[in-house]
């Protein structure tokens, strides 16, 4: 969950409460972190890479667009996704395991699988910023 600033802390609190992970419970925190590194036990993960030759341009837009497009498209097929920094935290292991050449920069992972809606983290209602808060409107008054 990424919302930036204080909200992220609030969301993390809600998540750990739902998962019954107390602040001081280092073991459970570690278990949760390890689960994230294993793509939250999803059966598959998509690793988004970009060819280094494009690094001079503006690949960030393309990377964001393709990543964002995959998630709702997966949903259309009944699949859930989780965009994950954690999944690429050890890029060199991934590079070796997935045979990703050095010419490609590893950017982000998307865990993908059929969601377990009974899992407490999947029952959290994640608030959205209102459009008015993140938009400045000009004209048309
Ligand atoms: C670039 C990026 C990296 C993220 N990395 C992680 C991560 O490593 N672990 C995690 O649990 N969530 C991570 N998230 C948040 C989840 O993907 C989040 O659940 C997702 O953005 C969907 O949010 P929603 O449930 O509010 O729709 C990340 C999100 C983004 C956009």
Explained architecture:
With 141 residues, the chain is of the alpha+beta class. It has one domain: NADH Oxidase, CATH 3.40.109. 39% of the residues lie in helices and 16% in strands. The chain contains five helices and three strands; from the N terminus they run H-H-E-H-E-H-E-H. It has helices spanning 5-18, 26-37, 59-76, 91-97, 131-134; strands at 44-51, 80-84, 104-113. A three-stranded antiparallel sheet has the order 1-3-2, with helices on one face. The longest helix is centred in the middle third of the chain and has 18 residues, at 59-76. The model is unreliable at 1-5 (pLDDT under 50).
What is the name of the CATH architecture? 3-Layer(aba) Sandwich
How confident is the prediction overall: mean pLDDT?
91
Global geometry: globular
Q: How widely separated are the two ends?
A: 35 Å
CATH topology: NADH Oxidase
**Mind telling me the CATH class?**
Alpha Beta
H/E series, N to C? Answer: HHEHEHEH
Backbone CA Rg: 18 Å
Give the biggest sheet: 3 strands, antiparallel
Number of helices: 5
Q: Give, in spatial order, the strands making up the sheet with the most strands.
A: 1-3-2
CATH superfamily: NADH Oxidase
Q: What small molecules does this complex bind? A: flavin mononucleotide
In short:
This protein is α+β, with helices and mostly antiparallel strands and 141 residues long. The protein has helices at 5-18, 26-37, 59-76, 91-97, 131-134, and strands at 44-51, 80-84, 104-113. 9% of the residues are buried.
């Amino acid at each position: 969950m990424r919302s930036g600033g204080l909200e992220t802390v609030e969301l993390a609190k809600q998540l750990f409460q739902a998962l019954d992970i107390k602040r001081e419970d280092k073991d459970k925190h570690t278990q949760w972190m390890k689960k994230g590194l294993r793509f939250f036990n999803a059966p598959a993960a998509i690793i988004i890479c970009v060819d280094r030759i494009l690094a001079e341009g503006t690949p960030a837009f393309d990377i964001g667009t393709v990543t964002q497009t995959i998630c709702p498209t997966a949903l259309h097929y009944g699949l859930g996704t989780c965009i994950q920094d954690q999944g690429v935290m050890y890029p060199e292991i991934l590079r070796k395991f997935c045979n990703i050449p050095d010419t490609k920069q590893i950017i982000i992972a998307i865990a993908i699988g059929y969601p377990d809606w009974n899992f407490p983290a999947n029952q959290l209602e994640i608030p959205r910023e209102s459009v008015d808060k993140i938009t400045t409107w000009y004209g048309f008054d």
